[in-house]
Amino acid sequence: MISILRPAFVLFAALTLLCGVLYPYAITGIGQVAFASQAAGSLVSRGGQPVGSSLIGQAFSSPKYFWGRPSATSPMPNNATASSGSNQGPLNPALIDAVKGRINALKAADPANIAPIPVDLVTASASGLDPEISVASAYYQAGRIARARQLPDNEIRNIIDQYRESRYFNFFGEPRVNVLVLNLALDQRRP
Amino acid sequence: MTTQSFLLLVAFLAVLLALTYPMGLYLAKVGDGTRILGLGWIAKVENFLYRRSGITADSAMGWKTYAIALLVFNALGAIVVYAVQRLQARLPLNPQAFANVSPDSAFNTAISFVSNTNWQGYGGESTMSYLTQMLVLTGQNFFSAATGMAVAFALIRSFSSRSVKTIGNFWVDITRSILYVLLPFSVVFAVFLMGQGVIQNFSAYKDVTLLDPVTYTQPKNGPDSQPLKDSKGDPVLEILTTKTQTLAMGPVASQEAIKLLGTNGGGFFNANSAHPFENPTPLSNFFQMLSIFLIPAGMCFAFGRMVGDIRQGWAVLGAMTAIFVVTTVVVLIAEQQAHPALQALGVDQAASALQSGGNMEGKETRFGISASALFAAITTAASCGAVSAMHDSFMPLGGMVPLVLMQFGEVVLGGVGSGLYGMLIFAILAVFIAGLMIGRTPEYLGKKIQSFEMKMTSIAILVTPALVLAGTAIAVMLDPGRAGIANPGAHGFSEILYAFSSAANNNGSAFAGLSANTPFYNAMLAIAMWFGRFAMIVPILAVAGSLAAKKRLEVTAGTMPTHGLLFVALLVGVVVLVGILNYVPALALGPIVEHLQLFTH
């Protein structure tokens, strides 16, 4: 038995040291040298103050900002210390109620808009922290934001087009735009 | 299926195949124990470890010794994972001052990470200290994957060897798997992931100031920190406003890399690979999908090379790929469907140049439908269990495919090592059935398949369906089992069926609405995970021991070829037939009923 126990203990300890201590610290070291900003969370600052991470969505509700994906985290939406989806199945009445509530909120903020609402704007993201919306969802909100900021519609659309990301070769990635980046650009254009 | 989905699937398979073949030849060298040119410095570390541990590298073990060494090493792992979770409050690297994990949850997590399941009843960023995550959870990500590779190497050698009593040395197999494969590939992948935006630090959670304050309601707690109730017994709600957002941090990239390469799947964060800090871009997602399949697919070619006939590897990979492609297409189509109730509300669900459309509940914008659905098929075809979308919110048939892929026994690519040894067991069953049909003693790769091998094969194939179906039946009969259900109706049953399918087949993904962090589910699922792993490994090692001792017969005119299309079709047929016979009644009660309910109105 000792011929099994000794290798088991020594090898376990040595490999734990290698894979559980040296490896993560080595990666951390490489990260600080090569990708310092990404490794620290891709933080975005305004006037020297951190206002978010470009990778983590925030819950915007004011009419003058782009709204992001609905978030099912608790207790508050976009809780970045407790990521979660809604986990509601397609037949769950709570899912349909939630979608209705989101549609009503969007229509209340922009009664004149009769365009169909893009699906990603009324369904909860997987992480509850999705930083992006589809380009369709950004365009859908352009009119509301233009009025709230007293800017022409096409200026809002120009800002969207400036920051949108594309689907490459018709299959790689999705047409989308980062909500925090858009809203910072809006504030810079006209607070 | 949209053109986008089709192109993505084709691109994925093309890149995978290009990477897999050289990977397989490399893995064969690792399994053979031969020197690898240019990696002498790793050999020095390797030999140093052997000397310190008292291991004689060239002394091979019989199958029983091999199995005991494997079980001792994994039991030791389980104890250490449990202990660190139970003591984490007193240990360093715990900036959020998380309490010790509860005994039942710590037990479940220990079994889960040791068995390569990585089922998670907890939410990482609100439960585990950095030390727990990196020391024991990351550690087990390596060890459980290496254990799978070791068993696969032992089984392959039993085919290629001639009349020997040994199947290899377990210590050498795991050490080489880690030093030559898992660790170096993880380093490269982790650095790539950081470049894409995956975080890697040890700082406390960071507060940022929101542009737009958030107002929300939550149940109010009394002075005794119990929820307050009003006169009617309803919880009292309070309205709060916050101007800050707290961002969870941690050493994520290092764990993320091995999570996928080792087909572990246990996320640093609760949302797993859907979390932007784990999987920030479509490119990182594409490479995450590749890295899940890289080693399992490579093992097929390693198998072909080690038994001296690469066509055998092609046949096994061909059978796996055939099942994978057909099932993946179902998810891709199902998730692009428009939800009838949302359609009635006037929601735009059509795919276009401006949006992915489809069923976006529980999906991330950057992955859309195609990449989310493909990831779901990959993570359940392999026994990975990482998720980039919430499977619980999939359309009924979109959620059924991940369920079925797990129920096939995780042999469609499958886990690192475990996919290959699982599929070889099905290959043995396939030649046995073929042998019965033509009235000839079945043989596979020149080894006669006899009564002992068939008994062990039967155990290995039947142990997981027994665990899944018995576990599900018990859970739906008992109150603590039903209490965990989140969604009403047939979907609630699917949640339980999914949990046991995932646990017993060592996948680890979930219909995550199920509240599984309870003593009942923690205990039940831990049992399913442990026996689903080791009650399969031990019979397979027994088969290996028995095969190794046999002569290797020459190929004659009467030998059934096991590298042609006919055998591939037979192998696919056996896997699908066994899976369907076991699970169709259960599936009919879950996703099939749900599909009919959703689309009949």
SSE order of chain A, one letter for each helix or strand: HHEEHEEHHEH
- Class inferred from helices and paired strands of chain A: mainly alpha
Low-confidence stretches of chain B: none
Morphology of chain B: globular
Q: What is the terminal separation of chain B in angstroms? A: 23 Å
How many distinct helices of chain A?
Answer: 6
Q: State the share of residues found in helices of chain A, binned by percent.
A: 40-55%
Total strands of chain A: the figure is 5
Chains forming the largest contact: A-B, 107 and 137 residues
Oligomer: heterodimer
What's the helix-strand series of chain B?
HHHHHHEEHHHHEHHHEEHHHHH
Distance between the termini of chain A: 74 Å
Describe it for me?
The complex is a heterodimer of chains A (191) and B (601). Chain A has 191 residues and is mainly alpha-helical. Chain A folds into two domains: 36 residues; 147 residues, no CATH class. Chain A contains six helices and five strands. In chain A, the strands form two sheets. Chain A has a two-stranded antiparallel ribbon with strand order 1-2. In chain A, strands 4-5 form a two-stranded antiparallel ribbon. In chain A, a hairpin with a 2-residue loop joins strand 1 and strand 2. In chain A, helix 5 crosses helix 6. The mean pLDDT of chain A is 96. Among the domains of chain B are: 42 residues, no CATH class; 173 residues, no CATH class. Chain B has 18 helices and five strands. In chain B, the strands form two sheets. A two-stranded antiparallel ribbon of chain B has the order 1-2. A two-stranded antiparallel ribbon of chain B has the order 4-5. In chain B, helix 5 packs across helix 6. The model of chain B has no long low-confidence stretch (mean pLDDT 95). Chains A and B meet through helix 1, strand 2, helix 3, strand 3 and strand 4 of A and helix 1, helix 2, helix 3, helix 5 and helix 6 of B.
